[in-house]
Amino acid sequence: MKQHIIALIDCDSFFVSCERIDNPALQAQAVCVMTGSGNKGIIVSRSKEAKLLGIKMGAPYFQVQKAYPQAVCLPARHRRYAEISHQVMNVIKGFTPEIEEVSIDEAYADLTGLDIVYKTSYAELINKIRQTVLNKTKIPVSIGLSTSKTLAKLASDKAKSTGGIYIIKPENVLSTIGNDDIKEICGIGHNNSRKLNFNGVFSVRDFLQKDNAWIKMVLGIRGLNLKFELSGINTSPVNSAPQAPQSIQDTKSFADFTDNYEFLLAELNIHIHNAAQKLRRWNGFCTEIGVMLRTKDFSTTALYTELTATNSDFAFKSAAAMLLSRLYKPKSLYRSIGVELRKLSYDDEKQQSLFTELQHEDNKLSKLVDELEQRFGRGIVKIGA
């Protein structure tokens, strides 16, 4: 079996790093990026300085403001982050086309054989990639290198505290991560870690010492693949073809709590438009939509309904309005609302219905709005109720 050399490139405190590009005065400050704005925000990204203060991921802004008044908290600007992410990924693609984007701030890259192409060691190559990304985009990254995706991910985590790069060689797995808690390994999960702990498996070392038949019996084929990955055998090749999403969510906290139904509906329609646009970029269709409402005390409720396959804003808004009317309680205060598109498909052929022709016109009109927004700017077209 051919041995692959795989890197995991992970942008450091990505949202914060993006904010520092646009505002260099934020350098060396304790900076947090939050969903929503004002007292209703939730921390989703922290600078190194903010982490040292003790600010936790997911902490409510009002608590952070009270306990750490020196911290700078900013509302997230996801469109700007997407632009910078695109720049980072393009720099990486300048070294190898074999990259798999796994999130807005992470990508796997297959570097197999590039030590010969660039006439350098793999350690020097990933250091060059790191420096080039920083020079061209001003985004700091940490890079982990190994012979499987799982080990590369673990190496990238260690790289954050070892100068930005870290390499795990298959022959050194036990000496580098053997004592790591098995529940911290990506792919194990809470339920499986409890099952493994019950059987005396607490560390990576314990897991690797179990025979294949036992692991397959307890965790199935995915568990067996994970053992191979942790042993340095790549079972999941880097896939450079973009992967269509299995579901699409769009949500945001409000600047202030509200019980206003018209405001909730207006915000919901914005999220529907954002989610539907993402679906249309993939030429995808949805047959289930859900609406999520979160109250002032963080209690979340959601309802879903099925649809005839569509990617039309109009069809989504009609179904979502019905769901919102069922979820809404007049005396409750709400902090956020969101939409989720599920049961997505990307086939050209769709089941026909009595309303197919009308629905087709709705889909075409939604795509026309997308084109106008792309050419003239977001919000150029206002659609009436």
Shape: globular
Our count of helices gives 14
Low-confidence stretches: 349-358
Q: In the residues, how many domains can be counted?
A: 3
Give your account of this protein's structure.
The protein is α+β, with helices and mostly antiparallel strands and 385 residues long. It folds into 3 domains: 9-168, Alpha-Beta Plaits (2-Layer Sandwich); 171-240, 5' to 3' exonuclease, C-terminal subdomain (DNA polymerase, domain 1, Orthogonal Bundle); 248-376, Dna Ligase, domain 1 (2-Layer Sandwich). Helix content is 43%, strand content 22%. The chain has a 5-stranded mixed beta sheet. The protein has a 4-stranded antiparallel beta sheet with strand order 9-12-10-11. β2 and β3 form a beta hairpin. α12 (261-281) packs antiparallel against α13. The longest helix is centred in the C-terminal third of the chain and has 21 residues, at 261-281. It is globular, with a radius of gyration of 23 Å. The protein starts with 5 loop residues before the first strand and ends in a 9-residue tail after the last helix. The model is unreliable at 349-358 (pLDDT under 50).
